[in-house]
Design brief:
single chain, about 425 residues, D-Maltodextrin-Binding Protein, domain 2, 2 domains, 5-stranded mixed β-sheet, about 15% strand
């Protein structure tokens, strides 16, 4: 993850100064709020808008509530793009009913650029920087400033059915390529489960394929809408080749064009299950089903032979609404929620791994996942490739979805068509 900070755009410096000014102007309001809390007013309610999970964020809200404030939760839509839309509409209107928000990494730059996120105090920023993985810090940073607090860091690995691999000549103790995985499944009656519906998860896969081939979707992101689109490149050809190979093979699930994280779990757990790329929650997803005893794991597949893979980076950063009337309390809540102890608490409940090495030291996590798998998760997070850090990520992602979907349509012409579409979308010459 080193070397990615030079891609930060400089477009937001005026918004940054505006937010600093807002912070100064709001000091009196915050001081009054803090004094009221110290005076025993326990009526302050912090509303935390969370991404859907198994209830772990609600448990943390209760755990981190104090005599000064109570944290309650509201759940955002399942789809990440719909989460963004709901938050943007309300934040753009200056809605003060949102205090905290669980924010998907690709939208961090957009929200920061728009001035929706409150500045994190220097002391808390330093604490979060010191405790968090470098990749988690990068994903939480815009314009060289941490704008959300790293909460949990997700990554994908290659999951495989041990009983299936035994029937093949694939050596999963060594790095494997997408071509090898697809061929092994195709020749032995298995399926390769991925996320290829027309949604953000498909953009995650495409981005990982690009980065694994040594390329990037967009360069010079500091130029904003004038960034250099590099989809039509050798890396783009390598990425398209993988998608085309899977889509045209017998290893493709019947629901490939509508597949997501959940359908991938179902495919992998079926009689035809062979391989799957998916997030860390998979290890506990099958409960007492016999499939759980047949799961193996290794690093995310390589796009091309000889090039290290670039596993997807996911997770959640915790942001504070710049318009909240309870900023001091909200920052205290952020500090509690993102402590390594509570990151581990949340990981044990949800299967979403901590954003800090200290969070991985939890004995219960080691008991559930085993040290080998936890080591793979951490190594994968450290090698992971984030989606392009840009306020224009939504345009980039929707352009990919529009030109690479369905997977069965992908061929050697796709990168060029995608580059043209994306360039026009960034320049507002094409509607998305």
């Amino acid at each position: 993850m080193t070397g990615r900070r030079d891609g930060r755009t400089r477009l937001g410096h005026r918004a940054r100064r505006g937010r600093r000014g807002f912070a100064t102007a709001a000091a009196v309001v915050l001081l009054s709020s803090a004094l009221a809390a110290c005076g025993g007013d326990s009526g302050t309610e912090l509303i935390w808008y969370t991404n859907p999970d198994t209830g772990g964020q609600a448990k943390l809200a209760e755990k981190c509530s104090t005599d000064d404030y109570t944290i309650t939760t509201q759940v955002l839509p399942q789809d990440a793009s719909q989460q963004r839309i709901q938050l943007v509409r309300r934040l753009a209107a200056g809605d003060t009913e949102i205090d905290l928000m669980s924010l998907d990494p690709p939208f961090t730059a957009e929200f920061a650029e728009a001035g929706y996120l409150a500045d994190i105090p220097d002391g808390l920023e330093q604490k979060l920087t010191d405790q968090s993985f470098e990749g988690a810090v990068d994903a939480a940073t815009w314009e060289d400033q941490m704008v959300v607090a790293p909460f949990w860091s997700n990554t994908q690995v290659l999951w495989y059915r041990k009983s299936f691999v035994e029937k093949t000549d694939l050596d999963v103790s060594q790095p494997v390529t997408w071509e090898q995985v697809i061929r092994a499944a195709d020749e032995n009656g298995g399926k390769v489960a991925v996320q290829a519906n027309k949604y953000e998860g498909y953009a995650v896969w495409i981005n990982a394929l690009f980065e694994g081939a040594g390329g990037r979707l967009v360069e010079d992101v500091e130029q904003g809408a004038d960034a250099t689109v590099t989809v039509d490149s050798p890396a783009g050809e390598d990425a398209a080749r993988v998608v085309e190979q899977l889509a045209s093979s017998k290893a493709a699930p019947a629901d490939l064009s509508v597949s997501n994280e959940g359908t991938a779990v179902a495919t992998f757990g079926s009689d035809a299950g062979a391989f799957m790329v998916n997030w860390t929650f998979v290890w506990t997803a099958y409960g007492d089903d016999p499939v759980s005893k047949d799961i193996g794991f290794t690093r995310y597949p390589r796009t091309v032979e000889g090039e290290e893979s670039a596993p997807p980076y996911g997770g959640i950063g915790l942001g504070v609404n710049a318009a909240t009337e309870s900023r001091s309390e909200a920052m205290s809540a952020v500090e509690c929620i993102t402590s390594p102890e509570n990151q581990a608490f949340y990981a044990n409940d949800s299967g979403n791994m901590p954003a800090s090495a200290a969070g991985y030291d939890d004995p219960k996590l080691r008991e559930t996942y085993g040290q080998d798998l936890l080591d793979l998760f951490q190594q994968s997070v450290e090698a992971a490739a984030p989606r392009t850090v840009s306020p224009y990520w939504s345009d980039i992602s929707l352009s990919l979805q529009s030109t690479w979907h369905p997977p069965s349509s992908v061929d050697g012409q796709t990168p060029g068509q995608s580059a043209d579409f994306m360039s026009q979308a960034l320049q507002a010459e094409r509607l998305l």
